[in-house]
Automatic annotation (TrEMBL):
It comes from Salarias fasciatus (Jewelled blenny). Belongs to the class-II aminoacyl-tRNA synthetase family. InterPro entries: Aa-tRNA-synt_II (IPR004364), aa-tRNA-synth_II (IPR006195), aa-tRNA-synth_II/BPL/LPL (IPR045864), Asn-tRNA-ligase (IPR004522), Asp/Asn-tRNA-synth_IIb (IPR002312), NA-bd_OB-fold (IPR012340), NA-bd_OB_tRNA (IPR004365). The gene is nars2. Residues 131-438 form the Aminoacyl-transfer RNA synthetases class-II family profile domain. SUPFAM superfamilies: Class II aaRS and biotin synthetases, Nucleic acid-binding proteins. This is asparagine--tRNA ligase.
Length: 448
């Protein structure tokens, strides 16, 4: 008559309850009279302390082994935990050789070390906290959009378009095929934006949150070949502010949600893994995010150009070093940069029709530690302007469907994409993007 519970449930159960828990041993200590175990099942950072008579000791109760324990919940003499489990049976379900197991008891292994074991690293406190935070942040983002009237669209993973026009595509064909499966070349999507634009033309406010793929050769700390993107598209926009407001609100709402619901897990990071980062997070939430134009950004950078490896002349794309500098310059808070050179932006970005420094109504959100977190724009909704640009690029046939969106009830609209892994880096102060995704894919690495 033992009730099977998750360990997080056991912590809020009545003293005296008969329960069974299952999990993995995080520490085992045998004394003359008693055996002490810490058992963790991933439901929370906290492990459950198990106390048993020496007769229940088993040499197979080692760090990492899988166990099932039944007993009575009783008050714990330790302040830190409210209760412990007095065991009347302990069963080793799966052994674990402590010599071969790459993690050692009570040792805080660094993120870089545990990265070598993508199949095992979720058994560490740091990485299991991270994945619980990632899960909660995912829910937080879905809640934000649901609460604000957005319709979720499952945009396709396989597509024939290259939304960003950067040619960083992975082609999709059946293994060994000698003709195109879909009649045309097909690719893993780099962005769901164009499909979101099609649906924004019916639902007004839409979003998608799914994997996107880029064949980037970069070995950087903020690029992956497979990453998750949150994308939103809003119809009937009147200005860039309609976009930056959603970007900022979503960032705040998700961050506040995670800080409130993952207190222990976030604390582990902010205290032990990336100490000092909590201050940065708190200061990010204090004031509204500053907005500067690209031209103002270039002026700021030019005044310190000797600090940079790359030029920061008007017309050049901002490099990571420039983005990080701008964030620092603005007080180490997220900052919007708007109105980029027209020629730097993809065909869909709205022409500001200014000059001689010709710009598009595009916006990036730059954040501490990471640089670019979001990229977005108002979209070119004017049929003749869009058609002229697509003709110039030789793309008018490929995008005739996209022009249709401007022929049939076109409305001013805009949207953005947020790199979800970069968001987690920013929230937790994690330096390397490979440490915020369960199974990272990047060039020359597709383990598991
Ligand atoms: O700036 P990007 O390329 O914008 C788009 O794809 C737009 N179509 C989105 C839209 O408007 N709907 O990508 C958006 C964000 C970047 O700001 C960055 O945070 C992230 O996606 N990102 C990456 N994250 C990890 N690895 C990569 N290789 C990434 N490339 C972009
Ligand atoms: Mg971008």
């Amino acid at each position: 008559t033992h009730k099977k519970l998750r360990i997080s449930e056991a912590f809020s159960s009545q003293l005296g309850a008969n329960v069974t828990v299952q999990g993995w041993v995080r520490s085992a200590r045998a004394q003359k009279v008693n055996v002490f175990l810490h058992v963790n099942d991933g439901s929370s950072l906290q492990s459950l302390q198990v106390v048993a008579g020496a007769e229940l000791n088993d040499p197979l109760l080692t760090f990492g082994s899988a166990v099932e324990v039944s007993g009575i919940l009783q008050e714990s003499p330790h302040e830190k935990q409210p209760l412990e489990l007095q065991a009347d049976s302990i069963r080793v379900i799966g052994e674990c050789d402590p010599v071969d197991f790459p993690f050692k008891v009570k040792k805080r292994h660094g993120l870089e070390y545990i990265r070598q074991f993508p199949h095992l690293r979720c058994r560490t406190n740091a990485f299991s906290s991270l994945l619980r935070i990632r899960s909660e942040a995912t829910s937080a983002i879905h809640s934000y959009f649901k609460d604000n009237g957005f319709v979720q669209i499952h945009t396709p993973i396989i597509t024939s378009n290259d939304c960003e026009g950067a040619g960083e595509l992975f082609q999709v064909e059946p293994a060994g095929a000698d003709e195109h499966f879909f009649s045309v070349p097909a690719f893993l999507t780099v962005s769901g934006q164009l499909h979101l634009e099609a649906t924004a033309g019916a639902f007004s406010k839409v979003y998608t949150f799914g994997p996107t793929f880029r064949a980037e050769n970069s070995q950087s700390r903020r690029h992956l070949a497979e990453f998750y993107m949150v994308e939103a598209e809003i119809s009937f926009t009147q200005s860039m502010e309609d976009l930056t407001k959603v970007m900022e609100d979503m960032f705040r709402s998700a961050t506040e949600h995670v800080l409130a619901r993952c207190v222990e897990d976030v604390d582990l990071f902010h205290r032990h893994v990336t100490p000092g980062h909590r201050e940065t997070v708190d200061s990010m939430l204090k004031k509204s995010f500053p907005v500067i134009t690209y031209t103002e950004a270039v002026d700021i950078l030019t005044r310190s150009s000797e600090q940079f490896a790359f030029p920061s002349d008007w017309g050049c794309d901002l490099k990571t070093e420039h983005e990080k500098y701008l964030v620092k310059h603005c007080g180490n808070v997220p900052v919007f940069v708007t109105d980029y050179p027209y020629d730097l932006k993809p065909f869909y970005a709205r022409d500001n029709q200014d000059g001689p420094r010709h710009t598009a109504a595009a916006v990036d959100l730059l954040v501490p530690g990471v640089g670019e977190l979001c990229g977005g724009s108002l979209r070119e909704e004017r049929l003749s302007v869009l058609r002229a640009r697509l003709e110039q690029l030789g793309l008018e046939d490929a995008y005739s469907w996209y022009l249709d969106l401007r022929r049939f009830g076109s409305a001013p609209h805009g949207g953005f994409g947020l790199g979800f892994e970069r968001y987690l880096q920013c929230l937790l102060g994690v330096d390397n993007i490979k440490d915020v995704i369960p199974f990272p894919r990047f060039s020359r690495s597709c383990l598991l």
